[in-house]
Amino acid sequence: MEFVTTREELRTIYKTPRPTDGSIRKELKALDGHCRSFIGKSPFVLIGSSDGAGNADVTPKGDRPGFAAVLDERTIAIPDRPGNNRLDTLENILLNPSVGLLFLIPGMNETLRVNGDARITVDAALREPLAVDGKEPQSVVLVTVKAAYMHCAKALMRSDLWKPETWYDRATLPTLGQILRDQLALADSAEATDRWLDEEYKHTMW
């Protein structure tokens, strides 16, 4: 199998967009009103990061719509709620601040992409207003925006992501307890693991 190894070779396969094309012109250097409104309505964002050695990671962050706070046209604050404590994204940010964000709004096929540099803070003045039911985030990721633009609908249209009639019947898919039992060779039953997970979700959501 042959692989594409140079940008020049890649551009013989794909057209090079012109500076006047919409795909180039739509890139903003700061958040305009549409971007701010989109983030304010989004309950879900994917954060792409990588460490100093180039190992990549994408992690989901979700909460009530508008959980990611736009502080100004160049700054987004993303609260970090309790998780599995792997800290893949946070440790990556310490080594390489460059991140890519993908914001989604359920039912909307267009997405918002934001690229920038991230920092981590535990400043109480920022954590307090991002609290949910009195529970502050453990830390906050501050992203300084370098580029922001709307992404067209093709990927979500092709996938029918928001159409329930295309979704698998959840009962036909394994539970996380079943998957972990097999992957980790757990002594506990899948049912016991699922019950434990349910309890964890109840008490450690925020």
UniProtKB/TrEMBL annotation:
InterPro entries reported in the protein's UniProt record: Pyridox_Oxase_FMN-dep, Pyridox_Oxase_N, Split_barrel_FMN-bd
Source superkingdom: Bacteria
Pyridoxamine 5'-phosphate oxidase N-terminal domain ranges (all copies): 32-152
The protein, known as: Pyridoxamine 5'-phosphate oxidase N-terminal domain-containing protein
Organism: Mesorhizobium tianshanense
